[in-house]
Write a structure and sequence with these properties.
With 360 residues, this protein is an alpha+beta fold. It is built from 5 helices and 18 strands. The strands form 4 sheets. Strands 1, 2, 5, 8, 9, 10 and 16 form a 7-stranded antiparallel beta sheet that branches. Strands 3, 4, 6, 7, 12, 17 and 18 form a 7-stranded mixed beta sheet that branches. Strands 11-15 form a two-stranded parallel sheet. Strand 13 and strand 14 form a beta hairpin. It holds the Pfam family DUF7918. This is DUF7918 domain-containing protein.
């Protein structure tokens, strides 16, 4: 997980799988992280911790955030020391460290593909600094939406109007191509912005002498999971979006109290940015090695194997008979050769009478 060394803050994306046991929490699988970089936002001055992860086409996920109450003071103290002593920052004493480092309240805004979907309030009074976020709760507390990776919905732009990008066969407002440049540029990004703030606890429903004021009911947030994108866009290579699932009703009633912002800084002091990409892009960028082609194990048909063995046996039999005939013929010729030259025959020499020639 990307960790900010100065503040000790960290963040992690976990894939969620259903537990085999009923009633047990989901199984968390941390996403593999690559290419960790630490940069500085030139506009806001926020520290940015960026990593790349492999995207998943259809999977709920969670965001594990660990923000120490002293994160802001620790980070600012280190920055001041680096500015005063850029080459050799001095080591602060324990007394100085305690006098400068103070706890703060924080707000973590969650931004999926350029769309802010919710925020998490972390008061300094909480002793446990870790929070695993899997769902976004509506302001009224009556509905929830789970964080979810989904397949990017790509469409042919020829099927949509050129002027308003609305579908030619549907009047549903959601059935249109997204032309929001903020969303298109941010596709493939999960971002958590950490702000310093001051929190106060207030009742969720405020009751007065005459009426009860409840938080306004807002329509569900439309994220990139519900949007359509042109298949000709450069972002079409991503194949995955990160957004919210459909609304559900929570099993537990909403809490009576909720945190409100008394004040909040205009800019975040820390950002965690996750760039999610499919494996094909990670391989083309040299971040991951290409996977070897799977080996296919050939299992012959037993009947074909039996017929093959029988055919092989017959061929071997014919070959052996032919070879024996050849050897016998060859041996027979060899014996004949020995009979002609190797053995002395039991015959008398033929005598030719040449005496008559003298009389001629």
């Amino acid at each position: 997980m990307p960790i900010n060394s100065a503040s000790g803050a960290s963040c992690q994306i976990n894939l969620l799988q259903p537990s085999p046991s009923a009633g047990s929490p989901s199984i968390r699988t941390p996403c593999e992280e690559y290419d960790h970089q630490t940069t500085l936002d030139p506009t806001t001055g926020a520290i940015q911790e960026m990593v790349t992860i492999q995207s998943q086409q259809a999977s709920p996920f969670g965001i594990l955030i660990d923000i120490k109450p002293t994160a802001y003071s620790s980070l600012k103290q280190q920055q001041q020391q680096q500015q005063q002593h850029p080459t050799n920052p001095p080591q602060s004493s324990t007394h100085d460290h305690q006098s400068v480092i103070i706890p703060e309240d924080y707000a973590c805004k969650i931004i999926l593909d350029g769309i802010e979907v919710g925020s998490y309030q972390h008061p300094k009074s909480e002793s446990y600094s870790k929070k695993h976020i899997t769902r976004i709760v509506a302001a009224d507390g009556l509905t929830i939406q789970a964080l979810q990776f989904a397949k990017l919905n790509l469409v042919d732009p020829d099927d949509y109007d050129d002027d308003n990008h609305q579908s030619l066969v549907s009047t549903d407002p959601i059935d249109r191509i997204c032309e929001d440049e903020t969303v298109i540029k941010a596709l493939g990004t999960i971002q958590i912005d950490v702000f310093r703030c001051t929190l106060v606890a207030q009742p969720r429903c405020i009751t007065t002498a005459t009426t009860t004021i409840v938080p306004p009911v807002k329509p569900p947030t439309v994220t990139s999971n519900q949007m359509k994108f042109s298949e000709r866009s450069k972002k079409a290579r991503l194949s995955t979006s990160a957004g919210l699932a459909q609304q559900e009703t929570p099993r537990d009633p909403p809490s009576e109290m909720r945190w409100h912002y008394q004040s909040i800084d205009p800019f975040p002091f820390l950002q965690f940015i996750f760039k999610y990409k499919p494996r094909s892009i990670l391989e083309s960028e040299g971040i991951l090695f290409a996977q070897p082609a799977p080996t296919v194990e050939f299992k012959p048909d037993p009947q074909n194997q039996i017929r093959s063995e029988q055919s092989s046996s017959i061929n071997n039999h014919h070959y052996c008979n032919s070879r024996n005939d050849e050897l016998e013929a060859h041996d027979h010729k060899r014996v004949q050769v020995e009979d002609d030259h190797g053995r002395v025959e039991d015959k008398k020499p033929k005598i030719i009478d040449l005496t008559g020639l003298d009389d001629l």
